[in-house]
Write a structure and sequence with these properties.
Blueprint (H helix, E strand, L loop, with lengths): L1 E11 L7 E12 L3 E5 L6 H8 L7 E6 L2 E2 L7 H7 E4 L12 H11 L4 H14 L16 H13 L5 E5 L7 H18 L2 E5 L3 H7 L2 E6 L2 E6 L1 H5 L2 H6 L6 H11 L11 H12 L1 H6 L13
Parallel strand pairs: 3-8, 3-9, 6-7, 7-8
Antiparallel strand pairs: 1-2, 1-4, 4-5, 9-10
Helix pairs in contact: 3-4, 3-5, 4-5
């Protein structure tokens, strides 16, 4: 499985005095099983870009290829594409409408032509994958908490068994516990099922923790594309774009300024913890000429 954008451009208001590029000459390829983070300030083109990946928007110029096929080609089945490339919009619970949770999750599979029985099998599996307990399945989705509604909405896309799952700010508005639970479930889909994930987020900490690769958009153009360590090394340039690196990046650079020799490409709290603990080992401290941290003069 692969998605390839080839010199993608999208103009709003084309041919008018208000003509403006939302995407300008964007090229990249997402391979099977990747976990890609997509970041950029508001208006950078992120939401426009992801709507091209499953054909909801058509490019002004350039191409999108799915498994080598031009999705704008004559006779291409876009309806099938949208089953294979699932898109979860920001605040997806606003799209819930059925009388109960199970029926809502069944909607997509039934639109694919499955029988009610087949759709229910898919729906039950998807609801289990997102961690929503069975006691909620016969309730109205509007009786659920914000985090539970978000799970139902994601399950509705998963029930169509996509090969790619694109999520636009899936944790927006959730409390920290709900955010972590949703992201951990998305990470499990990637790890256990090999699902390709594209995660749009304003949280640099979340992107650093979960993504293997980051695409950075700025004013409709792709600015960076690479592993988190490489991308966040450009934290000064990200700041100029209205973005930032994870907070731990700034902590690490402050420590290095004060002579603490830990790697400068650390992007998560866990990595920083491990690096500091390694530095505190007596043999490392001795080798580097440092005093082991502990009570002064105690040797601890």
């Amino acid at each position: 499985m692969s998605i390839r954008a080839d010199h993608l451009c999208h103009l709003y208001g084309e041919g008018t005095a208000f003509e403006q590029y939302a995407l300008k000459d964007v090229s990249f390829e997402i391979g099977d099983g990747e976990f890609v983070g997509l970041i950029g300030h508001t208006g950078s083109g992120k939401s426009t870009l992801i709507q091209h990946l499953n054909g909801l928007l058509q490019a002004s110029s350039g191409k999108i290829y799915y498994n080598g096929e031009d999705i704008d080609g004559d006779g291409y089945d876009r309806r099938n594409l949208r089953s294979r490339v699932g898109l979860v919009f920001q605040y997806p619970e606003h799209q819930l409408f059925e009388v109960d949770v199970l029926s809502d999750v069944c909607f997509g599979p039934k639109n694919q032509g499955l029988s009610r029985e087949e759709a229910e099998v898919r729906a039950r599996e998807a609801l289990t994958l997102v961690g929503l307990e069975e006691r909620f399945w016969d309730k109205s989705p509007f009786e659920l908490s914000g985090g539970q509604k978000r799970r139902v909405a994601i399950a509705g896309v998963l029930a169509m068994q996509p090969e790619v799952l694109i999520l636009d700010e899936p944790t927006a508005g959730l409390d920290p516990r709900g955010r972590d639970e949703i992201l951990d479930e998305i990470a499990a889909l990637h790890k256990d099922r090999g699902m390709t994930i594209v995660l749009v987020s304003h949280s640099m900490e979340d992107i650093a923790r979960y993504a293997d690769r980051i695409l950075v958009m700025n004013h409709g153009e792709k600015r960076f594309d690479g592993p988190p360590r490489e991308v966040f090394a450009h934290y000064r340039e990200l700041e100029e774009m209205g973005l930032a690196a994870p907070q731990i990046t700034y902590v690490v650079h402050k420590l290095r300024e004060h002579g603490i020799s830990i790697p400068e490409d650390i992007t998560t709290v866990e990595e920083a913890r491990d690096a500091i603990l390694e530095l505190l080992r007596p043999e490392r401290a001795k080798a580097s000429g440092r005093q082991t941290w502990g009570k002064a003069g105690s040797g601890e």
